[in-house]
């Protein structure tokens, strides 16, 4: 269904939950065969492949093909087919923009077909792969929540043989000459600490990986390791200054026009800069962390920007990532330093309310009154205090499903819906 996928990837306003789950289920499974894709030609030797959900830059040179990214494990057959459709030239070099599962795991079929390219990534990528092996169970679980799949359906690399490891790494900047052309690799921190963005000056192409893909920056993911908003904003300004006529983002549609591309990155830098400044100002005022997060806002001039909508991540999550990095994990409330477990707290609150069913009734009333945020607290307390209480389960499922339906961010919506489904099971 490439047309439906393409429409969804290009429309930040669409609720793409079901589609995202279907795409990720196929793309994340190495057993997946050939699937739909789109090709964006820049010239007769330069293309962007849209594999859904990931994009791959394809550059034919006089020495062979250069790929920027390779897609997901389940994209391997499609990538082999798509590259062979475009060119018969040998594969010379592969660049990973970072080590995420949807960018650095689609090379296997090309390797099995006899290709032996150099594989270049930032020096932090091998450590990322090592961490993935060490936390395989955790990563499978959180991705099952994020993309609403049964955990048994989530493939995650667990052994060294599951990775196509870099053959070369670099630290800050690396300029490659391939077929008489320059490919310039730049390191920057953003969604990851191993991120690379690539400039091909002779073709006026910028391949930015996940530094831009048409939605609010994925810079605060609540289930993942540290993100880097401060460095990301600086990289956005650097990329704005490149002057590239063609932008190959890690996801979403190909972009063209130097002025438009420059504006995309300057708007992104301003968006992140506003959240950064608000968060630091509040931290320095020693405000409680929850109040900082509740108060963070996007400048009015950027709120309606179609490329900065909270379709995936949220400003509040970005603020939390900044607080975690610069202010520590403690919330500032003394009772939360060495707290009782959430279950113990819930049992106490439920006892004050007259039991789990009574507390669930209060949650339902709050939801009916439009107080969904407070309703979620009460409903989860009731569920924790009475996991076998039918009314507590019913209300928790209903309240969190209501919260999910009104939530634009896929990350938040998936977490809310995971609880709703668990409670309703």
List keywords for this structure.
7-stranded mixed β-sheet, globular, Serine Threonine Protein Phosphatase 5, Tetratricopeptide repeat, single chain, alpha/beta, 425 residues
Order of strands across the widest beta sheet? Answer: 1-2-3-4-5-6-7
Number of helices: 16
The CATH class name of the largest domain reads Alpha Beta
Assembly level: single chain
The figure for the number of domains is 2
Residue-averaged pLDDT, rounded?
Answer: 93
Tally of extended strands?
Answer: 13
Notes on the structure:
- By secondary structure, the chain is α/β, with parallel strands linked by helices.
- The chain has two domains: 2-267, Metallo-beta-lactamase, Chain A (4-Layer Sandwich); 340-424, Alkyl sulfatase, dimerisation domain (Serine Threonine Protein Phosphatase 5, Tetratricopeptide repeat), CATH 1.25.40.
- The protein has helices at residues 2-10, 17-27, 76-86, 108-112, 125-134, 136-146, 229-240, 258-284, 289-295, 300-303, 315-327, 342-353, 356-368, 372-385, 390-405, 410-424; strands at 38-43, 46-50, 55-61, 64-68, 91-95, 118-122, 168-170, 173-178, 181-187, 196-200, 205-209, 246-249, 255-256.
- The strands form two sheets. Strands 1-2-3-4-5-6-7 form a seven-stranded mixed β-sheet, with helices on one face. Strands 8-9-10-11-12-13 form a six-stranded mixed β-sheet, covered by helices on one side.
- Helix 4 (108-112) links the parallel strand 5 (91-95) and strand 6 (118-122).
- Residues 1-16 have low confidence and may be disordered.
